[in-house]
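Here is one such protein, fold included:

. . .
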Amino acid sequence: MQALKADPMASATWDGLELLSAEETRNEGHKPKPPSITRCYKLTIPVDEAFSRVLATAEEHGWVEETGVRTKESSLARKTINNATASLVLSTKSAVCDSNPDFQFRVNIHYR
C-alpha cells in the first residue's frame, strides 16, 4: 500500500475535478483485500476532458494507457511499481462512489 500511496496519482489534483471522497483498502482480517486506493470526484468539466487531464498527468509519471480497452466510460493504464504491475482505472461508474449523489468520475489505483 505504501508504494501506491507514494505514487503521484494517489494525490494528484486537477482543475475541473472536485474530490468528494477517498477510500483505501485496509490490511485486516484473515485474507485482506489487495491494496487499492479509490478517489471519487464531481466534475465541472466534460467527461472526455477529465479523462484527458488525468491521463496526461499519469503519462507524466510513467503510466502507460492501454488504448485498446478505452471506452467513453472508462480507461486503463499500467505501471510497474516495486516489481509489481499496478493498474490505474478511470471510470464514470463505481459501486464504491455511487453512494455519493454528486459522483461523476472515479480514479482507482491497485495492483493487478
Remarks:
- The chain has a mean pLDDT of 92.
- DSSP finds two helices and six strands in the chain.
- Helices lie at 2-6, 47-60.
